[in-house]
């Protein structure tokens, strides 16, 4: 493959990261059909793979893709309406603002935000909203989404297909909700944005970049938009703070060789101080209100404690465990219990933490982080053989290439002096 073809393929990959959501959102707004939007967008990218190596990368890749996708959608509609309603066809092909897509006064003019609220409509189950948004807004493959949900790819594909069909059948509008409806709808949107961020923070697909800045940046940007709509909502502020404090550590999380770097080994001088300052300010503002915090606010507070420490040895683990105790009451999930156990290991020792982790076995048997945590605790207790077996299981389950490299390295170091059990 010559250099021009290599450059063109790299440009297609970059455009998919940067432009997928814009293209799908523009088509969804124009044609009012998510199937048409997704399939036409996919066809446009497939055409780019064929043509850009020969014709060169266009000056405006996003505009080229949107124009091409529009033409693909029009061709499909014409084929499907060949013996149908010609008047409806003409309206769909030429109206800039199809019926049902007009915005209420003062709504934020962002195509992707409209698309998110469509995907997050309360008529859909929460997990379905998340999956649909990851697919249509995040551009993830069905396989990647299935891994994020720990379900089979075929089951996830059926879930997404049914969701799009339900949106079409129920005539769910493609718009930002009115001001009075917005608070009730925002919790589902926050759940979606958090999972989109998590997929970028630690990508699940084995053939993707281990850290996808395009997804974390998109999640932060859209959360900022939600905060502009609801500036007094504590959970919106909490989620934004949480994202900022995690994103601040991004450049220190992967080594030049592509290995994930644990929190206790990261170069804290490489953390983004501006993002940390903004995140801390949001946490302080919420504490000053005196209102009882909810899940995202507590998670943000935990990360504020981590990012306040100049050195891992300065971390206030007792405060972190206390915050996890509060979080367990709000969200008694096994993953929260697992993360609490990691903090307990630093406060009360690995033996106490291992007992807590082992109680989660039946709930997290297929979750790689469960086995990775056990491996690290067993390592610290000097049980090398058991630790190696746990590392092997974690490596087999992990899909992230940087995380797999880190786990492999830790396994191969067995027998050397142990360090902390820190996260990433």
UniProtKB/TrEMBL annotation:
Bias type Basic and acidic residues, positions: 78-97
Top-level taxon of origin: Bacteria
Domain RNA polymerase sigma-70 region: 22-82
Keywords recorded for this protein, A-Z: Sigma factor, Transcription, Transcription regulation
Gene3D superfamilies (UniProt xref): 1.10.1740.10, Tetratricopeptide repeat domain, Winged helix-like DNA-binding domain superfamily/Winged helix DNA-binding domain
Region Disordered, annotated ranges: 78-108
Listed SUPFAM superfamilies: Sigma2 domain of RNA polymerase sigma factors, Sigma3 and sigma4 domains of RNA polymerase sigma factors, TPR-like
InterPro entries: DUF6596, RNA_pol_sigma70_r2, RNA_pol_sigma70_r4_t2, RNA_pol_sigma_r2, RNA_pol_sigma_r3/r4-like, TPR-like_helical_dom_sf, WH-like_DNA-bd_sf
Pfam families (UniProt xref): DUF6596, Sigma70_r2, Sigma70_r4_2
Similarity comment: family membership: Belongs to the sigma-70 factor family. ECF subfamily.
Name this polypeptide is given: RNA polymerase sigma factor
Species annotation: Streptacidiphilus alkalitolerans
